[in-house]
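Review box. Two proteins, two foldings.
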Amino acid sequence: MKSKHEDEFNQFCKQVISLDPAIRFAGIANEDGILESIAERENLVPLLSPEERAQYAITAATRQYTRLRWEFMLGKIQYASSKYEKLIRATIPITDENSTLSYVLLLSFDPDVSNFHEIITKKIIPFINESKANLGRLHG
């Protein structure tokens, strides 16, 4: 079933991919871990099947949600990352002003990119902040 906001989510993911050539994949999942949209770098050979990607989205959203409970002690989470041999993964919570999880941005980067922290903090997070008003309207 097509989401009523699928076009907006597709555009968002494509714009994230265009922010840096080291970004392999961008997906946006709702708080239940349901993938709303994905975009992949052109000519990319995915490492996961669509079913495996869907399972990953559910676990990533669950982990993001559980991290939010520590924010009152540790501060607002910016992103979480994991480095694998074949890629670097990151998740960025997209929350409202009350730190209620609305969406999770799922990312993967080439495994040899050394500046993924700068890509996330200087390119992707500012883009999310610029896009938050639109994404906030999409919730619900």
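Next protein.
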Amino acid sequence: MTLIRDLHTEDIPALTALAHVSVPLACPPDTKREDIDQHLDAVYSPGNLADWLANPALELRGAFSDEQLVGLLMLGAEASPVPVPASRSARELSKLYVHPSAHGQGIAATLLADARARARTQGHDALWLSTSKSNARALAFYRKQGFREFGERQFWVGNDPQPDWLLVLPLD
């Protein structure tokens, strides 16, 4: 059984480990390893993770299986770079990662259901996210869950600018 709970500072080592195995899978296959490493070192450093955990505008939730962190969900506070269609209040789904050993077990769907419920409770009418145009696995999952493209943006992995889709999921 999967347990979903808020993450805390004692989870930082497990968060770092999860990021190092799951984030590279979200990158286009031609992304240079040094750019991925630079991104991981900057974004998923223990200090940055501690800052996220201390920020009341962010929500970090973890999926645990047999007491091991196997999934990460982060509801962010960033506004979409382009207006979210048919939404008066969209919440950012900033991170959704699952350890490769747990792929296919429904953990991403469980984390997304948690995000939907939390966003609705907070008065939001949509979730928005950004994901790599080349991440076929993530795009298939998000489309199956009801997300639709509404724009594009550039996302930097290290020194590599990468094209992302902006996706929206209405919550009503």
